[in-house]
Amino acid sequence: MAMWQGAMDNRGFRQGSFSSFQNSSSDEDLMDIPGTAMDFSMRDDVPPLDREVEEDKSYNGGGIGSSNRIMDFLEEPIPGVGTYDDFNTIDWVREKSRDRDRHREITNKSKESTWALIHSVSDAFSGWLLMLLIGLLSGSLAGLIDISAHWMTDLKEGICTGGFWFNHEHCCWNSEHVTFEERDKCPEWNSWSQLIISTDEGAFAYIVNYFMYVLWALLFAFLAVSLVKVFAPYACGSGIPEIKTILSGFIIRGYLGKWTLVIKTITLVLAVSSGLSLGKEGPLVHVACCCGNILCHCFNKYRKNEAKRREVLSAAAAAGVSVAFGAPIGGVLFSLEEVSYYFPLKTLWRSFFAALVAAFTLRSINPFGNSRLVLFYVEFHTPWHLFELVPFVLLGIFGGLWGALFIRTNIAWCRKRKTTQLGKYPVIEVLVVTAITAVLAFPNEYTRMSTSELISELFNDCGLLDSSKLCDYENRFNTSKGGELPDRPAGVGVYSAMWQLALTLILKIVITIFTFGMKIPSGLFIPSMAVGAIAGRLLGVGMEQLAYYHQEWTVFNSWCSQGADCITPGLYAMVGAAACLGGVTRMTVSLVVIMFELTGGLEYIVPLMAAAMTSKWVADALGREGIYDAHIRLNGYPFLEAKEEFAHKTLAMDVMKPRRNDPLLTVLTQDSMTVEDVETIISETTYSGFPVVVSRESQRLVGFVLRRDLIISIENARKKQDGVVSTSIIYFTEHSPPLPPYTPPTLKLRNILDLSPFTVTDLTPMEIVVDIFRKLGLRQCLVTHNGRLLGIITKKDVLKHIAQMANQDPDSILFN
């Protein structure tokens, strides 16, 4: 008895073991969302999956020991068992198995009572209710962001004395002193020079307005980067690379939490209003996914299952694009083509419903006052001609070249930010880029206006009543004829607009490279579309004037008669916008549908398809990765791209750990190790799990146990089971042999053992192993030879091997 008492006093790993486990995890030290100094105090923003995990006998085996000396305390669920650590990958197979068991149990119980039947119906309906809530919340937040950003953008130039909460357009709506030609000028709207020095004329007034524009831009940018740095480091960037990684099964606690949602919503308004070359569309996907993740906690089915939660996040991403572009169908296709890893048919339907509700909510709010979901909605009715496919393809080539150039230069700059002192000063970097942008933007009216307004101006098809410089044509026709306006010679305003747009194009191309990836919310859709729209409008006006002055040329006279409306420059701008966006993101189907929904013109699908495919082909020829995949690789996330083929002839034995001359694989035996032995292995290693074998001599595989489950189970047993000491034997078997008297109680952990781990032989080709990891979402796969355990292949090993085969740095994969 004295020996037993002494053993009980030898608690060893008992004190603070779970905290020491957390500290030993090397993954946490490596996390680096682009450019942010990580503050892990925000980690508990969204708690781990529910601490009450259901008993799962069908998957993990199980059974009650026959010996009354064995305490199988896992008959009741233990808080934390079955959950995952931060910066680890979920086990898709285990999560799907749990959901099937849960569904089977609910179905069986529904036949027993009316209450159980009601519970079964509510469980089936909960997914649709969740989609409804996500759509409502995403649409409402998008409307709030649109209204706020529009008002704060105008605040840089002046204020409405009739009500400071009105933006420039709304301020002049009800004015009685406004003319149609100068509808943006009214006595109620005062520029800063009018308020400060009571005049809007002269050089000094221009300097005052210039100074106030730059000052407001710096203030908005400073507030945005400060809020992100202090309260939510995860709120920076576009969020789409991280969401793609999370949807593939990776855990990043707090990335989709409530603090991230609040700060990203506020700072997105500030960042867009500052005039930086960025958009809100990408971050809106992050905002919608935050809404989906937070609302998941209201439903047990999604709160307790990481795989089910990722189905919801796929639908939320569709809702985000739906409100960003007013394109519900495009949003569903974007989620399917670009961000989702697992997209079953049921998720497709629910994504469609969530996108529908989100778009309807935004339409009800009507943020732009034009009954449209976006600022740059346009309608074209002029038919295009077969010859125009040539300039459309040229725009596709330009888009592909711009996309490849942007990705290479932006990744190079972001890598420099991560590896030099620049990354330690995010506030200074943001302020410097904002100051340069504002100083260069103010003199040019096309860079001074918001990028969404610029795209709207470029997409616009000139009519008789348009007062824009882009529509300053010479009218040499009878206006009483009605119908379409014919092609006309360009006036002074058009030529002035052309060189201003050329300067705008250069500024946008250069400044966007340095803006994307800073420590503020920054989307890439709008800047990319702006670059393409400018190039397209320039080409469109050139084609229009060519057709007007050289109508006798063979390429024109067959389809363009004198006095006809042959060329639509706005259409060229739209095709150019699609080409550049496709070159950067490598989207195709979803991109064409989004642009089609923006314009409402079915007849322009072929030009859009031609430009999108040309853009993708050219960009892929210069570099296989889109911007989001490039940032995933830059940050070392464990993302296994499903679109890439693995064509190398290597075997599982070439990749598995341990290699030759390495220490033997760390294993647990099923019935001969003490609590102290297991705790020693846990404290001396950082592996996320351990194979369990019959004995070290035989190496016959029994199953696989996760490190986290082991630690939590041992700690729980020490607290709740009297007599468990460091010398207690741990059993992973269903039955145990009789024990001699005065032996400490044993600990049975069979219920946390995965009895069906995936295994391959050592001669399995790696292309098959890679396919298994992709299609089943595995964390690890055990390697055997004639039934004996040889080694283990983790997802990180697969990613490192793929990188090595592609002549890339395998150490760039930071997480497991």
Main features:
816 residues; mainly alpha; Clc chloride channel; CBS-domain; four-stranded mixed sheet; three-stranded mixed sheet; 12 strands; elongated; golgi apparatus; chloride; ubl conjugation
What does this structure look like?
With 816 residues, the chain is mainly alpha-helical. It is 53% helix and 6% strand. The chain has three domains: 136-172 and 184-365, Clc chloride channel; 389-474 and 492-629, Clc chloride channel (Orthogonal Bundle), CATH 1.10.3080.10; 652-806, CBS-domain, CATH 3.10.580.20. The strands form four sheets. The chain has a four-stranded mixed sheet with strand order 1-9-8-5. Strands 4-6-7 form a three-stranded mixed sheet. Residues 1-74 and 478-483 have low confidence and may be disordered.
What is the percent of helical residues?
Answer: 40-55%
Point out poorly predicted stretches: 1-74, 478-483
What does the radius of gyration come to?
31 Å
CATH superfamily of the largest domain: Clc chloride channel
Count of DSSP strands: 12
Structure described in brief:
Helix content is 53%, strand content 6%. The chain contains 31 helices and twelve strands. A four-stranded mixed beta sheet has the order 1-9-8-5. The chain has a three-stranded mixed beta sheet with strand order 4-6-7.
